[in-house]
Amino acid sequence: MRRPRLPQLRWPSRNGRKGQLGTQRYELGRAPQPRPRRRLFPRLPWRRLALTALLLAIAGGLGYGGFWLVDGPALRVQQITIEGAESADPLAIAAAADLGKRSLLTIDTTEAGARISEGVPAVKSATVRREWPQAVTISVREHVGWGYWQSGGRRVVIDSAGLVLPAGRPPPADATTIFEIGESRPLDPWDYAEPDTVTAVMQLIEDARSQRLGVAIERFEYHADRGLVVRVADGPDAIFGDWRNYSFKVAAWGALLNRLEREPIEVNEIDLRFGRQLVVR
Question: Where are the beta strands (DSSP E) in 143-242?
Answer without folding.
Answer: 147-151, 154-158, 177-181, 217-223, 227-232, 237-241
